[in-house]
Amino acid sequence: xxxxxxxxxxxxxxxxxxxxxxxxxxxxxxxxxxxxxxxxxxxxxxxxxxxxxxxxxxxxxxxxxxxxxxxxxxxxxxxxxxxxxxxxxxxxxxxxxxxxxxxxxxxxxxxxxxxxxxxxxxxxxxxxxxxxxxxxxxxxxxxxxxxxxxxxxxxxxxxxxxxxxxxxxxxxxxxxxxxxxxxxxxxxxxxxxxxxxxxxxxxxxxxxxxxxxxxxxxxxxxxxxxxxxxxxxxxxxxxxxxxxxxxxxxxxxxxxxxxxxxxxxxxxxxxxxxxxxxxxxxxxxxxxxxxxxxxxxxxxxxx
Length: 303
Description:
By secondary structure, this protein is α/β, with parallel strands linked by helices. It has one domain (29-277): Metallo-beta-lactamase, Chain A (4-Layer Sandwich). The protein is 14% helix and 24% strand. It has helices spanning 84-87, 100-106, 142-149, 223-228, 238-249, 274-277, and strands at 14-15, 31-43, 56-67, 71-74, 92-93, 114-118, 137-141, 176-179, 183-186, 189-193, 202-208, 211-215, 254-256, 269-271. The strands form 2 sheets. Strands 2, 3, 4, 5, 6, 7, 8 and 14 form an 8-stranded mixed β-sheet that branches. A hairpin with a 3-residue loop joins strand 3 (56-67) and strand 4. The longest helix is centred in the C-terminal third of the chain and has 12 residues, at 238-249. It starts with 13 loop residues before the first strand and ends in a 26-residue tail after the last helix.
């Protein structure tokens, strides 16, 4: 489509279909900072499939900043100039300090220094402020862009699709670019497809001094998803969502969910560090064989 551009030879990421080849041996260590850019209250079952129905939870809208050889931003939060209740029907609040432009400034980030903006997916709360980074390469999975242009009727508002009455989506910009599949974005940074929440969702795995962290987007909305093995509640395919969590377990040491205030342990601007790396890993229970009752004949009880 006319809105995409091919990256030049100096910035083009390597693409591979073999997970082993994107398990980095780089000594590059990235620093990750989470920025709280707004708050919503919603039913927990939107985040944990069939669990917590009727329980209202408070969640953040996070922009992630990675600093290393260059500066990378992951997700751009809710659009600054409209209220979500107008187009998605969801309650949302944001202080002046939580405005994305102000949050970046307070964290010492100049948007002009950002080389890559990674969008985990193109929903309204993750891709709403790409225009803050006009000089960055905005990176999305090709399948996600293809679907977001003309999504199914149920999901149109979530993508701010023109067919939902929005007009031009905030992610439809000249600097948007696509990748296909597992991709090394930079030394120590890997993009991993995570379909399920949306058809073309992706996560970013970053090497840090505390091991590799997965910024999972809505493949992992809460710690409960990955630690209790509960798929996210809002998805296009629950089987794909479960498979994506399993895939990420094999590619990262630690996980950063997209909508969990436990991540923001230091307030509006939280450096990711040792306490985040200390979270427990999920251990699958043993599979028990279902045997017939010991006193039941193989052919069933006599008539």
